[in-house]
Amino acid sequence: MQIEKYAGDYCEDIIVEKRDALHLKAQAAGAFGADYVANILLQEHSRREQQPPLLLRDPRLNELATDPLSLLEYDTLILPKRSQS
Asked: Other C-beta atoms within 10 Å of 43: how many?
């Protein structure tokens, strides 16, 4: 009987934790409708296969490495302009 109570409490804690995390994700995405929240759940539970790296014809281009953080600077320049238009 004690094990069942512990298991029930544990499951309830996990459900509350998952619900709170989902709520934060929905708020961050500005998703407040049931369809949007269902989409978030679907994306979380969908299996994504690892994609192989893209290989270009020119082997020199395959050796280039980009800094993903540097793209954020471009986003700050471009995105506000898009929202104004």
From this structure: 10
Measured CA to CA, the distance from residue 70 to residue 74 in angstroms comes to 7
- Name the residue range of residue 11's domain: 1-46
Write the pLDDT tens digit of every residue in 22-64. 778 888 877 777 787 788 778 877 777 888 888 989 988 888 8
Cα-Cα-Cα-Cα dihedral sign, residues 64, 67, 70, 71: positive
CA torsion sign for 75, 35, 24, 19 is negative
Task: Tell me if 12 is assigned to some domain.
Answer: yes
How many domains, the chain?
1
In whole angstroms, how far apart are CA 51 and each of 10, 34, 55, 67, 82? 36, 31, 12, 20, 31
